Automatic annotation (TrEMBL):
Species: Sphingobium nicotianae
Entry coiled-coil feature ranges: none
Keyword Glycoprotein in record: yes
Sorted UniProt keywords: Glycoprotein, Repeat, Signal
GO cellular component: extracellular region
Protein name: Peptidylamidoglycolate lyase
Length: 381
């Protein structure tokens, strides 16, 4: 494996923290990592094995569906308690049958040291909570947005940081037409433009659209599908086809799995079509970039995306099928840095699901598929 030994290079990297995300991700035991990192002179990242700190109360987390970083550099996580096995949470039974363990509340807030600050959520606190927690977003006003993509999950919820419900968009229940603005269909991700008071939703596993609501009232504003086309009300995924490559159609979205904004452009992950389409916020189609085309297996390659701080021409792309993180040019799609490492050891990834970046350029990657963890990668100084 290539070793970065230039002191001059390391010193320059330490002075350019704004460019830190243009890094390959390197496990703590790099010599044993699977796959090969590729880089174009970018600084090195290593997994921070001390983050997060141990949870209190014998709490365990299930699959970690989503992660977001707020303006205070606090890290918000939503996990899936329902993915924990009964044998894992015996201390939470009435009466308990073992000393360990208890399912943690689904929403967790950590500070940069990894200390748990707040926890809340779940069916005991919120009526019609989600069947499967999928994504979380902390907006610039410190509101926390959460959605789910389990059976009959068709809603987006807005909370205060303490977990008080402020707004419900959509509902849980039987699904309606794919273009219906009153209900989502297994939605996957959220982006809030606080200045314009708009919330964008990638919707999702069943519906094949981006849909936009007023962030204060929840009123429907607009929607579109691939290439900015109108949404076809009949084009949805029945349960047995969700995520299937057999349902791929390049003229349509398949699994619409992420939505984020860089500058004034909106980036949408079309997971099973192994591409990201770029739009103006009004839905005008601009272009698309591909990643690992033809190599995404049955689950696709473009699972999540995030901006690279200080680099508006770059985007982080997460491939959950191949356990790969890459930096792509936002116009050409050229890969300037990437790292692939599959496994369950620190620094490796198993079904990495979502990615977020803090103001210091540290990466936070959540994992599903019974991986049940979130990892932080930080620059080598």
């Amino acid at each position: 494996m290539r070793r970065w030994t230039s002191a001059r290079h390391r010193l320059a990297c330490a002075r350019r923290l704004a460019a830190a995300c243009l890094a390959m991700i390197l496990p703590a035991s790099a010599i044993h990592a699977q796959g090969s990192p590729t880089t174009s002179g970018s600084p090195v990242y290593r997994v921070d094995q001390s983050w997060p700190q141990r949870l209190p109360n014998n709490w365990l987390v299930g699959d970690v569906g989503g992660v977001s970083v707020d303006r205070h550099d606090h890290i918000w996580v939503v996990h899936r308690p329902g993915t924990l096995l009964p044998a894992d949470v015996q201390a939470g039974l009435t009466p308990p049958t073992a000393k360990c363990c208890v399912a943690a509340p689904p929403v967790l807030e950590f500070d940069t040291s990894g200390k748990l600050l707040r926890s809340w959520g779940g069916p005991k606190q919120v009526t019609d909570w989600f069947a499967s927690e999928h994504s979380i977003f902390a907006d610039a006003d410190d509101n926390i947005w959460v959605l789910g993509a389990g059976a009959k999950d068709g809603q987006l919820l807005k909370f205060t940081p303490d977990g008080k419900l402020l707004l419900r968009i959509g509902r849980r229940g039987d699904f309606v037409a794919g273009d219906d603005p009153t209900m989502l269909g297994l939605p996957t991700d959220i982006y809030v433009d606080t200045k314009k008071r708009e919330v964008f939703v990638s919707d999702g596993y069943r519906n094949k659209r981006v849909i936009v609501f007023d962030a204060d009232t929840g009123a429907f504003k607009r929607q579109w599908t691939a290439y900015g086309k109108p949404v076809d009300p009949t084009y949805v995924s029945p349960p047995n086809q969700i995520g299937s490559r057999g349902s791929d159609n390049p003229q349509r979205f398949t699994t619409v799995h992420c939505v984020t904004m860089i500058g004034d452009e909106l980036y949408v992950c079309d997971r099973n079509n192994e591409r990201i389409q770029v739009f103006k916020p009004d839905g005008t189609y601009l272009r698309e970039i591909s990643f690992n085309r033809g190599l995404g297996g049955m689950s696709g390659s473009t699972w999540d995306a995030a901006p690279v701080p200080g680099h508006p021409d770059k985007i982080l792309v997460l491939d959950g099928t191949n356990s790969e993180v890459a930096i792509l040019d936002t116009h050409s799609g050229a890969v300037s840095a990437s790292y692939q490492s599959t496994g369950r050891y620190a620094g490796q990834m198993h079904w990495p699901h979502q990615i977020a970046v803090d103001q210091e350029g540290r990466l936070y990657i959540s994992e599903v598929g019974n991986a049940s963890r979130i990892q932080r990668f930080e620059p080598v100084k």
